[in-house]
From TrEMBL:
InterPro entries: Homeodomain-like_sf (IPR009057), HTH_TetR (IPR001647), Tet_transcr_reg_TetR-rel_C_sf (IPR036271). SUPFAM superfamilies: Homeodomain-like (SSF46689), Tetracyclin repressor-like, C-terminal domain (SSF48498). One of its GO terms (molecular function) is DNA binding. It comes from Alcanivorax profundi. Pfam families: TetR_N (PF00440). Residues 18-63 form the HTH tetR-type domain. This is TetR/AcrR family transcriptional regulator. Keywords: DNA-binding.
């Protein structure tokens, strides 16, 4: 959602609509009606979304733009840590994988609904949703790809891209679907008892993603 440096009348309403939509889209899916978004946001004017954003597609794009702007702030700290490692030693695929996994996990802790919304855009909005994700998260994606190519220069570029996108999809949906893991019985067969602490989960996830990226 484009903003001028000068706050405009009505911007607070538009912002409230976007924040409410992200929460509802993440929780219930992108098929949530715009009327429900307006009602939940406490906006009485039924034409408000059309007034501020035009068509539904433009409104959904404003939501993705908002999510991406906040996500890229989270990634900056991870890239800074990555750069510090580069200054001390040769980085590895695992280091690149950590940027991806930790960025998504920290963002999940900050705003669960936004991560769910990102996953739903892939699953529920088809070409439209996937094109938006690539457009607004491309800065992060292409930097990941460039760093992987530096780390594994002999790997064919097509495989780098394919394995990176599989890693992104696995990481995003793994964050969203991890509740299924905690519903599994423990290793002795007791129902609802399987648990990993944070370090075990994070290390296992990073190892899984790294193995896929390293594969030739």
């Amino acid at each position: 959602m484009k903003r001028s440096s000068q706050e405009r009348p009505g911007d607070e309403v538009a912002t409230r609509l976007v924040k409410t939509a992200i929460a509802l889209f993440g929780e219930k899916g992108t098929s949530v009606s715009l009327r429900e978004v307006q009602r939940k946001a406490g906006v009485l004017n039924e034409a408000a979304i059309r007034y501020y954003f035009g068509k539904r597609e433009a409104f959904v794009e404003a939501c993705i733009e908002d999510v991406a702007a906040r996500f890229l702030v989270v990634t900056e700290q991870q890239w800074q840590t990555f750069s510090e490692k580069q200054s001390r030693r040769a980085v590895t695929v695992r280091d690149v994988s950590m940027v991806l996994v930790k960025s998504l996990y920290l963002f999940l802790l900050q705003d669960r609904a936004s991560v769910w919304f990102m996953a739903r855009m892939i699953r529920e909005e088809g070409d439209f949703g996937q094109d938006l994700l690539i457009r607004y998260f491309g800065e992060f994606i292409w930097r990941l790809e460039a760093e992987i190519r530096e780390v594994v220069p002999d790997k064919p570029r097509k495989l780098v891209r394919m394995h990176l996108f599989l890693a992104i999809n696995s990481s995003l949906n793994g964050m969203v679907d991890q509740g299924l893991l905690w519903r599994l019985p423990d290793l002795d067969g007791n129902e609802g008892g399987f648990r990993l602490d944070f370090d075990e989960f994070a290390k296992g996830f990073i190892a899984y993603v790294s193995a896929g990226i390293e594969a030739k």
